[in-house]
Design brief:
5-stranded mixed β-sheet, 193 residues, 4-stranded antiparallel β-sheet, 5 helices
Length: 193
């Protein structure tokens, strides 16, 4: 993250403790990445709700809703647990051509993002004030946080994760193509063990 502060990171469900843990209200590596111009595409479940414990595979720390408030500097949780049948917006059709209507179990509440003075807010699929996927930047953030397919896996079809991966790839290519001109060696993975 430090070598490429303006890159794109895709994080599924649980972030490692080395980038954020309970009590890191300011200056966590992931916060420095976002506020320094990086892009975090977070998919799966409530962001920063659970953190993988360093040196303890399979164990996690659970900061709960405090994680979102610490990393994004929010005063409230922006996610609702009320599922919504979202449909792609014109911007969503442009940026993520394969995106179809779906029912995220943890959509973003646009009124909370607006109350937190996020700018910009790019909505890719929406229903009645709930959105997923949605890109936003909290005040003073030079990068972007992308809330993407926040839903529990449950009884998803076998090709579900492949579809989500395709959609994330489309968004990266169509929205962040200019950030892709980097040398990836040593930047794609990091041993957290």
């Amino acid at each position: 993250m430090e070598e490429n502060p303006e890159g794109v990171i895709v994080s599924p469900i649980i972030v490692p403790e080395i980038v954020y843990t309970i009590g890191m209200q300011d200056d966590s590596p992931i916060e420095n990445f976002l506020y320094g111009g990086g892009v975090l595409i977070y998919s799966g479940d409530t962001p920063f709700y659970a953190v993988g414990k360093k040196g303890a595979p399979g164990q996690k720390i659970v900061p709960g809703n405090q994680g979102v408030m610490d990393v994004l500097n929010f005063t409230a949780q922006y996610i609702t647990t009320t599922a919504a049948a979202v449909k792609p917006t014109p911007e969503g059709e442009k940026m993520i051509p394969s995106l179809e209507p779906f029912n995220p179990s943890r959509p973003a509440q646009l009124k909370v993002l607006e109350a937190e003075n996020c700018d910009p807010i790019e909505v890719y699929a929406e229903a009645g004030g709930s959105a997923d996927p949605v890109l936003f930047a909290s005040p003073d953030m030079k990068g972007y946080f992308v809330h993407f397919h926040m839903e529990t896996l449950g009884n998803k079809p076998d090709d579900y994760l492949a579809q989500v991966g395709l959609e994330i790839g489309e968004l990266i290519t169509n929205r962040f193509g200019e950030l892709l001109d980097v040398e990836p060696q040593g930047k794609l993975t990091h041993d957290v063990g």
